[in-house]
Amino acid sequence: MVSGGYQFRPMMHDDLPIIQRWLGEPHVIEWWGDPGEQLELVTEDLDEPAMRQFIVAHDGEPFGYIQAYDLQSWPDPAFAMHPRGTQAIDQFIGKPGMIDRGHGSAFIRLFIDRLTAEGAPRVITDPDPNNPRAVRAYEKAGFIKQGIVQTRDGPALLMVRDI
Question: Cβ–Cβ contacts within 10 Å for residue 29, how many?
Fold first, then answer.
C-alpha cells in the first residue's frame, strides 16, 4: 500500500536485522523493553497467520514497524467488550531522525483507514500511559482515550478509533 508518500509492505525474515537494530534504539527500548525478547516475539509472529506485520517506509526509505491483529486471536479480558472484528495495533518509529516530525500520526491514520476499509468495525491500541509521544500520535490519528486498563502486560491506556 502506498499513500501520502508512505508505504506498508509485509515484513519478512530478511527484515529482522533492521528490526533488531531499531529495537536496540534507546527511544524504542524505553517503551518496548528488552530488544532480545521483543525480537524473539516479532520473529515468532512472522509465522503466525493472525498477526500482520509491516515495515513502514516514507518515499521508499524504511523507518518504522506496525502490526495488526484481530482481538479474537489473543483474547485478553481487558479488551473483551469490543465488537467482533476489532483490530489491535502496535507500532514504533525505528529511525531516530523520523521522530517528532508528524510521521507517526500520519502513517497510523493511513494504516487505520486501510483496516477499516477491510471491514474492521473498530481499531484499538494500548500505549503505556506514561508515553506522551505515542498518546499524542494516536490522538492525532483519530483515537479517543477510553481510560486505563489492566492488561496481561500491566497497565495501559486503552485508545479506540471507530469507523
Answer: 13
Number of folded domains in the chain?
1
Question: How far, in Å, CA of 29 to CA of 10, rounded?
Answer: 23
* C-alpha cell read off for 156: 495501559
Whole-prediction pTM: 0.92
Work out the average pLDDT over 66-73: 92
**For residues 9-29, average pLDDT:** 98
Whether residue 78 lies inside any domain: the answer is yes
Q: Which domain holds residue 35?
A: 2-121
Instruction: Reply yes or no on whether the pLDDT at 2 is more than 50.
Output: no
Give dist(CA 124, CA 160) in Å, integer: 5
CATH code of residue 21: 3.40.630.30
Identify whether 39 is part of a domain. Answer: yes
Whether residue 52 contacts residue 88, with contact meaning beta carbons closer than 8 Å, is answered with: no
- Report yes or no on 18 lying in a domain: yes
pLDDT of residue 153: 82
Question: Is 130 part of a structural domain of the chain?
Answer: no
- The helix/strand/coil state of 58 is strand
